[in-house]
């Protein structure tokens, strides 16, 4: 459906939209920093000192470690078991001593739960809530349940139906939200779930200074699945001058981000000058005399398609970032791993700071 919308466009409409995307990206998405953080606390995983029965894929371990490293760097997690003796204190059957203000985690789109497994191994989390609507085999649940003093609950539920205020294990407990497999609209649903509950808590508990939601880290992915009805910051898209139909085209363009070779020299996005954008529009205008949009798309170089795809991802994620900031959270959008590890490498990190 989205693809058909693109191919139904005239060449002038297509070229104008691409020029607009590139111009907007250059103006509002130019501060997404590289933030590949491998914390010392995760050394038992990165050095392969965990239980041999646990699945180990270096690419996934590096992604998980960097998500936690960014939470630590952002002040949501405190360093814990971060010493050369960490493995003595953090093995697969024990929980390290918890120096964190945060004692619980909610992992959205948890899948098998191995991001939370690393968090529990390395940071001493005491309560775990795994939210996932599908059933999985080979889950981390068995290993997590073997940890002393750790309580685990797995909720099989759609995120849009979840009310965290009604989850008994989270009552009166400081918690963080994490997610590594939140495809498309699942990211928007998670933000709405967490921060809606957060706002309710602020109203009800601010006077008692007993605020529980501490922060989040969400690795955004699969932007081609995003839908207008779920997107969390429609006003931002409209203020940029995009329509609902433009949003669906932009979300389809994001699938191009995985087209190219994501080697060590691939930067992901490159800002273009206004002069370069206008020159490209002139080339499209000449093409319109002999070719349609479908032919132009098929003839685009993979690297050019990938760069445009990343720009569209950034525009969508920047809207999410701005929505979170508008609700009083300190937040950043970063590239948490190099493209050579995963082209799905944007991470939204946020923390709630109590008023002094």
UniProtKB/TrEMBL annotation:
Enzyme Commission code: 2.1.1.225
EC class: transferase
Function comment: tRNA methylase which 2'-O-methylates cytidine(4) in tRNA(Pro) and tRNA(Gly)(GCC), and adenosine(4) in tRNA(His).
InterPro entries the record matches: Methyltransferase_TRM13, SAM-dependent_MTases_sf, Trm13
Residues covered by the Methyltransferase TRM13 domain: 62-350
Reaction equations catalysed: cytidine(4) in tRNA(Gly)(GCC) + S-adenosyl-L-methionine = 2'-O-methylcytidine(4) in tRNA(Gly)(GCC) + S-adenosyl-L-homocysteine + H(+); adenosine(4) in tRNA(His) + S-adenosyl-L-methionine = 2'-O-methyladenosine(4) in tRNA(His) + S-adenosyl-L-homocysteine + H(+); cytidine(4) in tRNA(Pro) + S-adenosyl-L-methionine = 2'-O-methylcytidine(4) in tRNA(Pro) + S-adenosyl-L-homocysteine + H(+)
Tree of life domain: Eukaryota
Alphabetically ordered keywords of this record: Metal-binding, Methyltransferase, S-adenosyl-L-methionine, Transferase, tRNA processing, Zinc, Zinc-finger
Biological process terms in GO annotation: tRNA methylation
Pfam families to which the protein is assigned, alphabetical: TRM13
Family in the record: Belongs to the methyltransferase TRM13 family.
A GO MF label: tRNA 2'-O-methyltransferase activity
Name of this protein: tRNA:m(4)X modification enzyme TRM13
